[in-house]
Amino acid sequence: MSFELRPADPAIWRGRVDAAESGDATRWHDHVKPWLRGAARGVGLVGFACDLGVRRNHGRPGAAEGPVAIRRVLANLAWHQALAVWDAGDVSVDEASDDLEGAQAFLAGTVADLLDEGHRVIVLGGGHEVAFASFTGLARHARGDEKIGVVNVDAHFDLRAGERGNSGTPFREIAELCAATRRPFRYLCLGVSEDSNTRSLFDTARRLGAEWRLDADMGSERHAETLAQLRAFVKGVDRVHLSIDLDALPAATAPGVSAPAARGVALELVESLIAAVIESGKLALADIAECNPAFDIDGRTARVAARFAARLAR
What is the CATH number of the domain that holds 213? Predict the structure, then answer.
C-alpha cells in the first residue's frame, strides 16, 4: 500500500488564550504551524500513528492514538522556545494491511527529509518499532563516516529476534542495518529491568557490544554515575538518536503504556538525561514511544511525553 503524511487536525492546536496578560503569554498552539518544505530551520514534529509492532509483540494496543494525545497536551503548554516548531503530521497506518515495514520506510524518508532541511526532529509514537524507522532516516541523512550513537531510555533492550519486526526488535534491527552498511553499532540502554529481560537478551546485548544500566542502579543516590556514563558514551559519537520508551518510567508516573514498570526510572533523572544530551550539541533526533491513551489515568503519560517533547524542542 502507499503511505502519506496525514496533516494534524487544526483543532488539536487550539487552547487557552491569556488575553489579559501583559508581555508574552503565548502557548504552543499560538506558534506551531504545518510543515512546508523549505520552512525556516527549527524543530520538526512528526507522528507515527501505529500499533502494528505492539500487536505483533503481544502487547496492549492503543499507542496509535499517542501522537494526538501528546499534541493535545503540548498545545496548552507555555511557549518558551527559541526555534520555530513545525508539525509534519502523522504517518497513519491501516491496521488491516499489516504493512509495518512500509510504514517504517515512509517515516524514515520523512525523518531524512526533515533532517536534510536542518530541523531537529521529534517523532511522537506509536509503538517502539518507531525507533528503527527513526534511525533509518538519520542514517540516510548522515555522512557514512559519522558515528551515530543510540541512547535508549527503556526498561527493555528491545533486541529480540524474530522474522518480522515488532516493538521488541527495533534495536536488533538497527544493529543489523549497521552491520549491512558497515556502520558501527553504538547502543546505550538506560533503565533496563532485569526482571523484564531474559538471560538470552543480556547475552545478545553483550554480543553486540551494547552498553546498559539497570533501573536498580539508577536511584537518586547514583544519578551522578548515570549521567557520567551517558556523557562518556555521547563523547564517543558524532550524532545522537535519543529514544524514550515511556515504560521506563514508574507505572504511577506513566500508566498509559503497553508494559507498565514495577520500578522504573524517576522523571527527574530522565529529564536530566535529556538535558545532558541536548547540552552535548549532538542531538539529531528523538522519538517518544508507547504513549497509550487507552490506559492513561488522568492523561499522566501524555503529560509526561509532552513535557519531554517541549524540553527536546528547546
Answer: 3.40.800.10
